Amino acid sequence: MTAQSLSEMAVEVLNTADGRAKTALSRAHAKAWFAARAAGDEISIGRAIPPDRPARPDRPELLDPRNVPRRRPGSEKGRIAILHAVAHIELNAVDLHWDIIARFANVPMPVGYFDDWVKAADEESNHFNLICDCLEANGSFYGDLPAHAGMWRAAEDTAEDFMGRLAVVPMVLEARGLDVTPGMIEIFERAGDEKSVAAMKVIYAEEVGHVAYGSKWFHFLCGRHDADPKDAFHDLVRRYFHGPLKPPFNEEKRAEAGLPPDFYWPLTVSSPVKN
Ligand SMILES: [Fe+2]
Ligand SMILES: [Fe+2]
């Protein structure tokens, strides 16, 4: 039995700066949550105020995306840059999943909702560790290169809108991951980097689940508020996501995750088409 509530656990992860320390704590809290669930001795959801921005290590240096140097993907340096960018995305994903738990803890939700995001946070923690291992096997490490400064923007923009958060983070940003990961796997296959291929295949398989959790709980809330899911999704993405969605889409994996084409295709134009 633990005295710490799930929200307190989430805030503790968010306030941990070092990547490996953050993911170790995240995995320990996930393990405690599921052990308590299995024992029928449940951890309370509680309330704790998440920080506006999660703690981050001193390195990597965070730059405006326009100033992050681009490298040829075929070169070794290019592949290290891809791994570094993925590690940065995974670390942000750990924080995003714990943040949604703590930030919207005032909204009553079924316990399955918390199970899903704790599991997703645990998986993201594993993804970060796997990619860091690949960076290290290639003579680099997380913090070695500059990284994208804008990663927390979607969280800030939707800090007060629960459905907006579900629409933009799992159903737009994580769904985008499904579109681009097969191309990255190919780059590492061509280079014969089996370790990175294996890590990216784990990520690819598990991210379908995260998009599906987003879609499931978005639809649940639409039911609660008597809203049409497709219309609500279009309104929220146009309000909180900057710019149109970019094809090509991974239609097959998106469908598997509960995202039908009529959700995302209309958003490839930046404003609604009036007829
Ligand atoms: Fe991930
Ligand atoms: Fe994810």
Automatic annotation (TrEMBL):
<dbReference type="Pfam" id="PF04305">
    <property type="entry name" value="DUF455"/>
</dbReference>
<dbReference type="InterPro" id="IPR007402">
    <property type="entry name" value="DUF455"/>
</dbReference>
<feature type="region of interest" description="Disordered">
    <location>
        <begin position="45"/>
        <end position="74"/>
    </location>
</feature>
<feature type="compositionally biased region" description="Basic and acidic residues">
    <location>
        <begin position="53"/>
        <end position="64"/>
    </location>
</feature>
<protein>
    <recommendedName>
        <fullName>Ferritin-like domain-containing protein</fullName>
    </recommendedName>
</protein>
<dbReference type="InterPro" id="IPR011197">
    <property type="entry name" value="UCP012318"/>
</dbReference>
<dbReference type="InterPro" id="IPR009078">
    <property type="entry name" value="Ferritin-like_SF"/>
</dbReference>
